[in-house]
Amino acid sequence: MTQETAAPDFHEFTVEVAESRLDQYLAGLDTGMTRSRLSQLIVEGQALVNGRTAKPSSKVRVGDLVSLSVPPPRPSGVVAQDIPVTVVYQDENVVVIDKPAGLAVHPGPGHPDMTLVNALLAMCPDIQGIGGEIRPGIVHRLDKDTSGLMMVAKTHQAHNDLSAQIKAREVTKGYLALVEGTIKSTEGKIDAPVGRHPRRRTRMAVVVGGKEARTNYKVLQKLRGHNLVELYLETGRTHQIRVHMAYLGHPLVGDTTYGHASHLVDRHFLHAFHLGFKHPLTGEPLDFKIGLPSDLTPAIDALR
């Protein structure tokens, strides 16, 4: 059966809990969908309470009959493309990849294709529609010029579970960065809110009223005029490491947005070397580490 002719999935539930909002009630059931997706279906009229359309905020009471119609995934318009990507781990629920630098995670202005999502659709065709049309399977991102480990969901359940782990800050995300100058303290925590730059709207900055952002760092090597630093995120704000290190006075080598270009590397020196999370189905701890890619190691050798 093709996606054009596939029938929607139909579910019926009898409310057995105390009064609550419709979106909260559905989010508490095992539907395999996020609350935002359920809210979208409610707004589209796909959820009925006692046969009548309702709002996400509508109250449901014990004994109410709630029906939910879930249309089949719409074709995303994102094409599958055979782009080489290293798979570190894969099973029926999740895939962990080593994203190369220069590869955007999903289509956007300036890169309508040749992204990680295009590669994933070629590797795992079933992820189409998992978590969204433009970003199927994606639960977290790396900047285009950041290399390293990423996890991707292959089922709705995995997408929900991994997203919940990220929200609960249960995912380990470790990075290696080469920064300019010598950091006074060999380890510490940067606790500074990050938000949109007040004047340069394409950039982020440490700003009053920004979102809480915390980065733990440890100097691994003291090199000539530089430090190789290990960083672990407590929060996951856009450009967090790059903004925090620049705020500390030690921008990433090669970061033309928050620092300046470098003869040592052709991109900012940032690599996601460590990723840890619980398997979305079994709960088993999974932990992965990889070394620096070949385009970054010469910079370390040059500074020794």
Describe the structure.
This protein is an alpha+beta fold. It folds into three domains: 9-70, Structural Genomics Hypothetical 15.5 Kd Protein In mrcA-pckA Intergenic Region, Chain A (Roll), CATH 3.10.290; 74-159, Pseudouridine synthase (2-Layer Sandwich); 169-304, Pseudouridine synthase (2-Layer Sandwich). Helix content is 16%, strand content 30%. It is built from six helices and 17 strands. The chain has helices spanning 22-27, 35-43, 116-123, 156-167, 240-247, 297-303, and strands at 9-14, 20-21, 47-49, 52-53, 59-60, 65-70, 86-90, 94-99, 147-153, 172-180, 187-191, 194-196, 204-206, 214-223, 226-233, 270-278, 285-289. The strands form four sheets. Strands 7, 8, 9, 10, 11, 14, 15, 16 and 17 form a nine-stranded mixed sheet that branches. It starts with 8 loop residues before the first strand and ends with a helix.
Question: What is the fold's blueprint, element by element?
Answer:
Blueprint: E1 9-14, E2 20-21, H1 22-27, H2 35-43, E3 47-49, E4 52-53, E5 59-60, E6 65-70, E7 86-90, E8 94-99, H3 116-123, E9 147-153, H4 156-167, E10 172-180, E11 187-191, E12 194-196, E13 204-206, E14 214-223, E15 226-233, H5 240-247, E16 270-278, E17 285-289, H6 297-303
Parallel strand pairs: 9-16
Antiparallel strand pairs: 1-6, 2-5, 3-4, 3-6, 7-8, 8-9, 10-15, 10-16, 11-14, 12-13, 14-15, 16-17
